[in-house]
Specification:
The chain is mainly alpha-helical. Strands 1-2 form a two-stranded antiparallel ribbon. The two termini are about 30 Å apart. Helices cover about 70% and strands about 0% of the residues. It has one domain. Strand 1 and strand 2 form a beta hairpin. The chain is built from 12 helices and 2 strands; from the N terminus they run αααααααββααααα.
């Protein structure tokens, strides 16, 4: 590859046969095979459950929603999207660029919605770099904002999932090899990883790291704490949407735990919007406690409010940002 498609700068040569697991023969093939096997398993699980779903009952459950329930869920969805926009504002503070906060929030919102519906490579990476480049941001600043947004999202996940998996793991169906004890070990590992990042931000003498050939500065301990709080609240808000749509049929902590499991399953599957994966996990873990028709109705309403409803404003905002005259070197990292 002659240049990096996202930044337009010369891309460093990648030694495919170099040291490390990614350079070993067969690594890519094995990884692809495991991904395909996971996808086949998910599709099979979804298809098996779909055969036994009473879709007429799902429709009845959707029509039974009151306007108050839908408005509350929509308000929580709006709050979650607003929280995510702040992730890019942290990047604005960290890099010191001078783009207006409204423009930064607009990019954050647009990229998040496209990320949810089309996958991280489109929304989380390519679109973010494209829009920031049009606004005149330099490659170093764009990379740092992207890394900070990514770390913020998963830092909150590690803390919330770690605490839930360790203290109140979600119900695991009989026969699953992982079991609650396995979840507790995973939870412990997630909390240790989050604590390690927080410690590095507060105490590490090395403050700069190379990512994609660009320097990324480690934030301060205070900024790292802000990252943790924003993301943790965001993940809990997303779970609250599903909980509200389930109309108190199941306790909030259980819904939160299952959502956290489903989030990782969706990332592993690489399916845009986690289509089918989230439903499969919820059905597998909660169908013994909530009728499938009500469970699927809640998840369909959640998708409509959280994934699909923001698409129209996000597309309009993207067209507006993308059509704006390209700024030349207006901003950069400090």
């Amino acid at each position: 590859m002659a240049s990096d498609a996202l930044t337009g700068r010369p891309a460093p040569r990648r030694h495919r046969n170099g040291p490390g697991p990614r350079g070993r023969p067969g690594y890519a093939v094995a990884k692809r095979a495991l991904t395909i096997l996971f996808l086949v398993a998910v599709i099979g699980l979804v298809a098996n459950h779909a055969r036994h779903v009473e879709w007429a009952a799902v429709g009845d459950a959707l029509r039974a929603y009151s306007s108050g329930t839908l408005l509350m869920a929509a308000g929580l969805a709006a709050a979650s999207h607003a929280l995510y926009c702040v992730y890019d504002l942290i990047g604005r503070h960290q890099t010191g660029h001078r783009l207006p906060a409204s423009a930064v929030a607009g990019v954050g919102f647009t990229c998040y919605v496209f990320n949810l519906n089309l996958g991280s490579l489109v929304g989380g990476v390519a679109l973010r770099f494209r829009l920031y480049a049009r606004l005149g941001l330099k490659a170093d600043a764009m990379t740092q904002i992207w890394v900070l947004s990514l770390v913020t999202n998963w830092l909150g996940y590690f803390c919330v999932a770690g605490a839930v998996f360790l203290l109140v793991p979600p119900p695991i169906p009989p026969g699953w090899e992982l079991g609650r004890e396995g979840l507790r070990w995973i939870g412990s590992g997630l909390l240790v990883a989050a604590a390690a990042y927080m410690t590095m931000c507060a105490l590490s003498k090395r403050r700069s790291w190379q990512v994609r050939g660009h320097a990324v500065r480690l934030p301060s301990g205070r900024v790292a704490l802000l990252q943790l709080l924003l993301s943790a609240v965001n993940w809990m808000t997303i779970a609250a949407i599903v909980w509200v749509l389930l109309r108190d049929r199941i306790d909030y902590v259980s819904v939160l735990g299952v959502l956290l499991v489903a989030a990782v399953a969706g990332v592993i599957a690489h399916i845009p919007a986690g289509l089918g994966v989230i439903e499969a996990v919820f059905i597998a873990l909660l169908s013994q406690r909530v009728p499938q028709s009500e469970l699927l109705a809640a998840l369909l309403a959640y998708r409509a409010l959280y994934y699909l409803a923001p698409l129209a404003p996000a597309l309009a905002l993207f067209l507006r940002l993308d059509a704006a005259p390209r700024r030349q070197g207006a901003t950069g990292a400090r």
